[in-house]
Design goal:
extended, 44% helix, alpha+beta, 10 helices, single chain, 4-stranded mixed beta sheet
């Protein structure tokens, strides 16, 4: 009996181990049937293996926005373009595009007499009175499609270009639109918008006019600078038309370059190159210059313009800051009027009391 006891204990242990393994296998099978994810061999969880749904980065777009985005994809910035850069709030590019195109349409009609594009009209009265047959209507539509495909699309005065960088748009302008006049007038009206109901934009930040665009190279910088600055300064080689300042002397200037997604041309090199092309009769004045030379570099393109001295006073054409400053000044004016009215009331009250007092009677 003493020899059989260890053998019986061994069989009991094996039976217990077998029951434990069976229960574990049943629990694992149950988890698999419940649809729970398992860890892969690399230790990564199933949630990390989910495929991206794609789409528009989680943004919902209307059909109108999709059409505008498709139209903008076929337009690219080119050498020789004029227009202005638009910066806006992040992830609000489409709304800013709607705002700036609305402004361009209104100010284009106001400043340059550009009529908005006429809406497509329906068929004439004869077509409405006498309905056409289906075959005739199909033939007419095919003929219209062929003629429209043969015609070259008409280029309007404004083209909206969306860059492959967040918060940046470019509006290309054509004659008779002058981007310098357009941006200046928009900002001038923004300084008068003292009430929020007068604001024309919500998502636009800054407008930067561009007179001419070229390649962002040493030669491109020289060519663009010669054409743009020749209308405002006398150049070092004797070309150009110099302008006099407010005191009768030659006008002063400052150079303000901005570089985005570009690493070839450096800021210091750009300033030195442009300054060396201007005659010595024009002096540099960084504090209060008569004219400001704006240089915008984006990737492989370079744009330049020359603005007047009030560019700094007008918040560098930042519409958002102009609206805020106008609203602040209006609030200060209201507080001053209220303070003035409160100070006048005690004076009027004291004067009325003095008028109502009887004169002293002389005693005999």
């Amino acid at each position: 009996m003493r020899q059989r006891k260890p053998f019986m204990i061994h069989l009991t242990s094996i039976h217990h181990l077998h029951c434990v393994c069976a229960s574990q296998s049943q629990s694992i099978a149950k988890m698999e049937t419940n649809g729970k994810r398992k860890h892969d061999s690399s230790g990564a969880q199933g949630s990390n293996l989910k495929k991206s749904k794609g789409g528009n980065q989680g943004k919902w777009m209307t059909s109108n926005h999709k059409d505008k985005l498709a139209a903008m994809k076929g337009r690219n910035l080119e050498v020789g373009d004029a227009g202005f850069w638009v910066t806006c709030q992040r992830q609000k590019e489409m709304r800013a595009a709607d705002e700036i195109m609305s402004l361009c349409e209104d100010y284009g009609q106001k400043l340059f007499g550009i009529d908005p594009e006429p809406a497509a009209h329906g068929s004439n009265g004869q077509d409405q009175e006498e309905p056409e047959e289906i075959e005739a209507m199909i033939e007419k539509e095919l003929a219209d499609l062929q003629t429209s495909a043969a015609k070259k699309p008409k280029q309007g005065p404004f083209d909206l270009l969306r860059m492959n960088v967040d918060c940046v748009l470019f509006v290309r302008t054509r004659a008779p639109v002058d981007p310098m006049v357009l941006t200046r007038e928009i900002c001038k009206d923004a300084t008068k918008a003292k009430e929020k109901s007068m604001w024309r934009s919500r998502f636009i930040n800054k407008l930067t006019p561009i007179t001419l665009t070229g390649k962002a190279t040493d030669k491109g910088l020289e060519d663009v600078a010669r054409k743009v600055m020749g209308e405002h300064f006398q150049l070092a080689d004797g070309e150009g038309e110099g302008e006099e300042g407010s005191d009768g002397s030659s006008c002063s200037y400052a150079i303000r370059p901005t570089i985005r997604s570009h690493s070839t041309l450096k800021r210091g090199e750009i300033i030195d190159k442009v300054a060396s092309m201007i005659s010595n009769r024009h002096k540099v004045d960084l504090g209060n210059p008569d004219k400001v030379i704006i240089i915008e570099i984006f990737q492989t393109f370079l744009g330049m313009s020359v603005v007047e001295r009030d560019w700094e006073a007008m918040k560098r054409y930042n519409i958002h800051e102009l609206y805020a400053a106008a609203r602040k000044s209006a609030a200060c004016e209201r507080s001053e009027k209220q303070a003035g009215g409160d100070s006048e009331e005690p004076e009027k009250k004291a004067g009325s009391e003095q008028e109502g007092e009887p004169l002293p009677v002389a005693q005999s």
